[in-house]
Structures are given as C-alpha cells and as structure tokens.
Amino acid sequence: xxxxxxxxxxxQALRHNLNVIRARAGRARVIAVVKAxxxxxxxxSTALAIQDADAFAVARxxxxxxxxxxxxxxRIVLLEGVFSRSQLEDAAQDNLDLVVHxxxxxxxxxxxxxxxxxxxxxxxxxxxxxxxFAPRDFAPALKRVxxxxxxxxxxxxxTHLACADERDGQVTRAQLAAFAATIGELKHETxxxxxxxxxxxxxxxxxxxxPGLALYGAxxxxxxxxxxxxxxxxxxxxxxxLTVREVSRGERxxxxxxWSAPRDxxxxxxxxxxxxxxxxxxxxxxxxxxxxxxxxxxxxxSMDMIAVDVTGIAGIEVGTPATLWGEGxxxxxxxxxxxxIPYELLCSVSQRVPLEPR
Length: 358
Known about the structure:
Strand content: 15-25%
CATH superfamily of the largest domain: Alanine racemase
Order of helices and strands: EHEHHEHEHEHEHEHEHEEEEEEEEEHHE
Strand order of the largest sheet: 8-7-6-5-4-3-2-9
Helix content: 25-40%
Structural class: alpha/beta
Number of helices: 11
Oligomer: single chain
Largest sheet: 8 strands, parallel
Number of strands: 18
C-alpha cells in the first residue's frame, strides 16, 4: 500500500496494439504518436517499448529532444515544426523531421540555408482550419521549399482529418478529395489518417499512418470500444480503498451534500481525485471496478478522494484495490460520464500518479 494510486502500463498490450495497427495499415508505415507524454503513458518509456515503430511523432521540440536523450534513434516527426532560428538549430542537431505549415517556417529555412539537413513534411489544410497551407497556397509553398539553397533531403506531404470519428464520413470524403486535388500528380509520400481514419475504414491511407489513441488501446468512436477492434488497454488507473463507511438512508456524502443515500448504504472512500487527474465533472453513477464488480461513484469528486457505493459487494475493506479505468473498464466508456473523451482522461493523469510498467 506504499502507492495508493498508480497508473499500471501494460507494455505487452502496447506492442500488441502496434501489431494490430500494422495489420490494419497494410503497406503503409506507422508513425506512433507519442506527444503529450505519450498520451499520459510516459514519453520515453513508451517509445523504448515500441522501438520497432517506423517513426514517432511529437508535437513540440522539447519532446523530440527528450526522445533523442533517451536513446531513440528512429525517425521523429515534429508535428508543429519550429518557430525560431535556435529551435531550427536544435532540431537539426537532433535530426528531427520538420512539419512545415506556415510561410514563416519556410522563411526560417530560407534564412538558415540549411534545409538539406532535414526531412520536411508540408502540411496542407483540407478543412481542419488549424495548421497547414490552404490548397490555394500550397503550390507557392512547395515552390519555395524546392528552391531553397539546400533542398530538403526528403519531402513528404500530409494533412489531418477533422471528423474521421464520424461514421457518415461526409467531411472526411471532402477532405480526402481536397487533398487529392491539391497534390495532383505529385509523387511525394503522404500521410493522411489518424486512429479514427485507420479504424473507420478510410481507403486513402497514404504511405504513412499516424495512430495515437488506438496505440494506447482506446477507441476514437462513441459507438465502439477498443476491444471491438482487437485493441487492449495499455493504462489501468488503479487506486486503493482508504476506509469504508456505513451511511444511513437520507445521509449526505461529500462536498455540498450532492448525494444522499436512498437506502442504508456502504460507501468506500478511494484515494483518487482531481489532484490525480480524475475529473471533477464525473457524475454520480460513474462506474468504478472493485472486486471485479461495478460500483457507482456517488457525490462530488474532491481533490484526493472519491466516494463509491459498494453496498452489496462483499469483502470491501481498507486496502482493497479499485480500477478507475483500463483493464475491465474501458476508458472511453468512463469518459462519457465526465462529458469528455478518452484522450483527455489519459492525458490528464497528474504527475503525482506514478507510472508502473508491467
């Protein structure tokens, strides 16, 4: 009981999921997305566990540099690119692939004259309206990159799907059409699909796929779990019962007395709260797995504790383990009780929760 709460990381499940993704991707190579501390799973440890991925993707320079410092020698794609001369030099030093999505980033390469040190990915905005060159601006951007004094050693094209998790696919089809029309007959390698696109059946997968959420064993779809695709949860957030209380009918529990017992009840107080990344927005009824049975969270989440109704579940005592999400309790299901998505739950696990490889 030295660690009341911990995130158990199943590296075998991680490798299993990569194999499932490879099978799904066919000939396309796999860029494992490990940004945001590998979606809360541990940046370096995750990459080291799946070094056979064809490449890794991070959002920011510091993440890429951390991977190099940890001994990762694979291709690393810097999804947001760089924004200053010093960042450009650091990226060159660590041999990071650059995503270029803004004219000012091309200007940096023009001023530095060192694009030849990089593999460059030009990002095209096909409807996300976040990062990337609008289709009308792509040709001039491509021309400027090709005219650099030291041309990129490799040049690839990419876009990002905004609504691949929507089953009707109308927006996705429009984006794919816009991408195809924009690149025309160009023969550069491409990267298009994320987890939702890959498991949602997007046909134009491109030469590289960029799975994130699926890699960690969660589903990007509201109507499906990861198990439906043969994926296994990598993170299991486990905690511990601190005490068990007998609460009489009508008594209230927690801050604001937000929940009152409809009957004489047995309430387990568990070491998990928003200080650990358990969202305060979890509603009464959110499932918690305890003794292989589902119990319901009751009342408000506090900073360090939650209350769970374990009436009728035998054997609950101080030290009994409880699962908040993961093995046996899909994170995508739990996320719905907070009105959020599994991405946010996984990424929000706080630094005081130790990651425990298994």
